[in-house]
Specification:
- It is built from 10 helices and 14 strands.
- It has helices at 58-68, 110-127, 172-177, 179-195, 209-212, 229-249, 295-300, 310-322, 329-350, 360-379, and strands at 12-13, 25-26, 75-81, 85-91, 94-102, 134-135, 144-147, 153-160, 164-166, 206-207, 258-261, 270-273, 280-282, 289-292.
- Strands 3, 4, 5, 6, 7 and 8 form a 6-stranded antiparallel sheet that branches. The protein has a 3-stranded antiparallel sheet with strand order 9-12-13, covered by helices on one side.
- The relative contact order is 0.14.
């Protein structure tokens, strides 16, 4: 199991440096990051023997039954284990809802978790964003708590079940064909975020550059991957080049560039529904936070940057986004830099996650693909977004 240190980044701005541990320059900020410096316990090993589709441990099923008032005959099975643990709940063969258990230490507290669902409700209400409706427990609260067999407390939230399948499960050519829609939906999210004013209790973590890469990266440092010395030097040069690009473009934490984002709007978090009038549904806002709007472009292309379809994905996303929101040539350069940093972020992510968190091919291609993407970026920093 991994142990990752978190850093508070609420009032700091990143700067280009060869040493990610040097202090940052303070600037005024909103309540971007409520996460304290903690080392989360090795909790996910409770599910080491549970694979996708397996029945959940008894403490999970009984906790869900009690918290949401579900009949005891409910069947609870694992969907995926990543930052958190997600289960499908069905009764009599009919899927009722999805329940997500929060990894202890990932969220700062109930307000942090509750804020995610408050934004989801606002997106549904104010912008008609297609996303599952959150379900309150029998006590009326979004956030519930389950005790595992050792007495540890797990947060839990629930959403209506969406009938359909993950876009990630489709052939890659069909995945690429949906990127215009993903770009347009992302523009809707950003338009809402730029104008929405949450309450004072709203708190989500930050997706600043030190949260993506470096010794304090939220999902792990990419340097922990099994890299050769040559590969490490290539990735270090690519990271420095991406940071330098953002510095040259003066992309900072001002409201023009920085606000509430989904943070992980990739094909695994997009559902293809059976309703032909509204074919895509956005799910899984548990990584939403205050970050760079252009980072949502980078997140969308995650794990596909090295594949031939990446250029089509990128151009379609940009075209879809521009239907509602402008993107300048400087924005596209910034998006390319964030894509490089995101690829490094996800290499670090792979050092702290189980292999079944991804389709096998994407998992196996992650490390060599990251090196390939870095080599391309060092030759042409706009190779992905030029079109």
């Amino acid at each position: 199991m991994f142990r990752t240190r978190y850093r508070i980044a609420a009032s700091h701005k990143w700067r280009v440096t060869d040493d990610p541990d040097l202090p940052f320059h303070p600037i005024p900020a909103r309540n971007f990051d409520a996460m304290p410096a903690v080392e989360p316990p090795p909790a996910l090993d409770l599910f080491d023997g549970v694979a996708r589709g397996d029945v959940a441990p008894d403490w999970v099923r009984s906790g869900i039954v009690h918290a949401w008032g579900i009949e005891p005959a409910a069947v609870v099975t694992l969907i995926v284990l990543s930052e958190n643990v997600t289960f499908r709940v069905e009764l009599g063969g009919v899927a009722l809802m999805v329940v997500r258990l929060g990894r202890p230490g990932y969220a700062a507290g109930p307000d942090h978790i509750r804020s995610e669902l408050v934004w989801v409700e606002a997106l549904r209400r104010d912008a008609a964003i297609p996303t599952p409706e959150p379900r309150r427990g029998v006590d009326g609260d979004f956030v519930q708590f389950l005790h595992d067999e050792a007495g540890a407390l797990w947060s839990a939230v629930a959403f209506d079940y969406v009938t359909g399948h993950m876009l990630e499960d489709e052939p890659v050519a069909r995945v690429a064909a949906r990127y215009g829609e993903i770009g347009r939906l992302t523009a809707l999210l950003h338009a809402h975020a730029r104008n929405w004013r949450p309450s004072g209790s709203f708190a989500r973590f930050s997706w600043d550059v030190p949260d993506m890469v470096g010794t304090a990266a939220r999902w792990g440092d990419w340097r922990g991957a099994a890299l050769s010395a040559t590969q490490t030097r290539t990735l270090e040069r690519a990271e420095a080049a991406a940071r330098a690009t953002l510095d040259e473009l003066r992309i900072d934490r001002s409201p023009v560039h920085f606000g509430l984002i989904h943070g992980d709007l990739r094909p695994s978090n997009v559902m293809v529904t059976e309703d032909v009038s509204d074919p895509l549904t956005i799910i899984d806002f548990d990584d939403c936070g205050y970050g760079y709007y252009l980072y949502d472009f980078a997140a969308a292309i995650t794990f596909y940057e090295h594949r031939p379809e990446a250029l089509r994905m990128a151009s379609s996303w940009i075209e879809g986004y521009r239907q509602l929101m402008p993107l300048s040539s400087a924005d596209l350069r910034g998006a390319g830099a964030f894509s490089m940093l995101r690829r490094l972020t996800m290499l670090g992510w792979a050092t702290t996650h189980r292999s079944d968190a991804l389709p096998p091919a994407l998992w196996e291609e992650n490390l060599p693909g990251t090196v390939e993407v870095a080599e391309r970026f060092l030759v042409d920093r706009s190779w992905l977004t030029r079109g």
